[in-house]
Design brief:
- The protein is of the alpha+beta class.
- It folds into two domains: about 250 residues, Bira Bifunctional Protein, Domain 2 (BirA Bifunctional Protein, domain 2); about 90 residues, Rossmann fold (3-Layer(aba) Sandwich).
- About 35% of the residues lie in helices and about 20% in strands.
- The strands form three sheets. An eight-stranded mixed beta sheet has the order 1-5-6-11-10-9-7-8, sandwiched between helices. It has a five-stranded mixed beta sheet with strand order 13-12-14-15-16, with helices on both faces. Strands 2-4-3 form a three-stranded antiparallel beta sheet.
- A hairpin with a 4-residue loop joins strand 15 and strand 16.
- Helix 1 packs antiparallel against helix 5 and helix 5 packs across helix 9.
Length: about 425
């Protein structure tokens, strides 16, 4: 009886070697941008106490109500695979006393796995990855502008320079209650025409009526009163300053009253970075009440999160390719008795920083050359009998079809010079 071949669960994806280069490239861009903006990396656990997300994300959100992977562990505790990154970062900020040190605290995460039980589709998985930043302890509009600038810089540096920012304010505890009632007054005559989820949102969290994606609710969203007209003076001044700073930094943006974000913890600034043909690539905003909600002192905060899979898909659609991973040199032996010499040479070069490959299957010399070509090796270093006697190696340029015999002791320096001149 043959064993059943297992496959990955629905909604998760393997990142195969031919795709890993795109991930590495995007991660390298993110790390460089975060370094330049002064963000320090934090890595939080992949699961947390379920209560963390109930208190932060909100019980009435789709994430909590429909999408969380929650289970009871062997100790009888309810734990949840993290559906988003901010709550865990805030928990760590408080647990480790970062709130007692110099402020603001600027943190980032890169390709952190997240989990949501959602309908799988292109660029959307049940296990997905996010990168993002959090600035905790800064109330000034400059913090909002810096976070938005970092998000825009990341996407532009990755290869989408024509992305722009859509900006809005969702107000705060001063002006939002009155707007909620205006929104209920607008929707009340149309309750029967709303989708089932929006009928629930009407009572529990009317602001999320504006975040609905169901076609039947679109007309009511389009005609709804805008929160921009209801902002208090402080929220209006905050939004105006954010706009002024973005203008000064020459970051393209437009005000969009339809940007409300789907999580309960947002206050004042909310934004998305969008591409003209590819849609929203990341989103974020200010969450001044979340630290206090999780047991800390009143602490202003702002951040963003970006879906890695979505960005890589967008870059692929625009033809932005990452270089394939290939060895810089393949060390081939021209005689059976020289296999140890070839292996020793490859190991020595690796220790000096050269990406070197060597035959592991006992292939003939001709088969080794074919294999080096399939791997995409830039150069082949041939270890033959005559080379061994003279203390040299023959370095063959696979692209140009030329070769040169060089001293073995100087081969690494020679390779680096050739690779640099070729733009490797």
């Amino acid at each position: 009886m043959s064993a059943v071949r297992l496959t990955a669960p629905r909604g998760v994806a393997d990142v195969l070697p031919q795709a890993a280069g795109a991930w590495q490239r995007v991660e390298a861009v993110a790390r460089d941008v975060f370094r330049r903006y002064g963000f320090a990396e934090i890595r939080t656990p992949m699961f947390e106490a379920t209560e963390l997300f109930l208190r932060s994300v909100g019980e009435d959100t789709d994430i909590v109500a429909k999408e969380m992977y929650t289970f009871v562990d062997r100790g009888g505790r309810s734990v949840t695979l993290r559906p988003e990154g901010t709550a865990g970062v805030v928990r760590a900020y408080l647990e480790h006393g970062m709130n007692a040190g110099p402020q603001p605290v600027k943190l980032c995460y890169v390709s952190a796995p997240m989990f949501r039980y959602d309908r799988p589709e292109a660029g959307r998985y049940r296990q997905f990855h996010q990168m993002g930043v959090e600035v905790l302890g800064a109330a000034a509009p400059a913090a909002d502008a810096e976070v938005i600038a970092a998000a825009h810089a990341l996407i532009a540096s990755a290869g989408l320079p024509d992305a722009s920012v859509r900006l809005n304010s969702v107000g705060d505890a001063t002006c939002r209650p009155a707007y909620r009632e205006r929104l209920r007054d607008h929707y009340r005559p149309h309750l029967e025409a709303l989708c089932p989820d929006c009928r629930v949102r009407f009572d529990r969290n009317p602001l999320r009526l504006l975040d609905c994606k169901q076609p039947q609710c679109a007309p009511f969203i389009a005609s709804a009163p805008t929160l921009a007209d209801a902002l208090c003076d402080a929220c209006r001044a905050h939004l105006d300053e954010v706009q002024a700073l973005l203008t000064a930094a020459r970051i393209p943006f437009e005000l969009d009253p339809g940007i409300v974000r789907g999580l309960d913890y947002y206050t004042r600034t909310v934004f998305e970075v969008v591409h003209p043909t590819l849609g929203a690539l990341c989103g974020g905003g200010r969450y001044d009440g979340l630290v206090e909600e999780l047991g800390g002192p009143p602490t202003p905060a702002v951040g963003f999160a970006l879906g890695v899979e979505r960005l890589i898909l967008a870059l692929g659609e625009r033809g932005v390719e990452a270089p394939a991973q290939a060895p810089e040199v393949f060390v081939a032996c021209a005689a059976e008795e020289l296999r140890a010499d070839a292996f020793r040479t490859a190991m020595a070069w690796r220790e000096q920083g050269v990406a070197a490959e060597v035959d592991l299957l006992g292939r003939s010399f001709r088969a080794q050359m074919r294999h080096a070509d399939r791997l995409g090796a830039r150069f082949v270093a041939v270890v033959g009998r005559s080379e061994a006697e003279r203390g040299t190696v023959t370095v063959r340029d696979m692209g140009a079809g030329t070769q040169e015999e060089v001293e073995a002791a100087g081969a690494v320096a020679y390779l680096r010079q050739r690779l640099a001149s070729a733009g490797a």
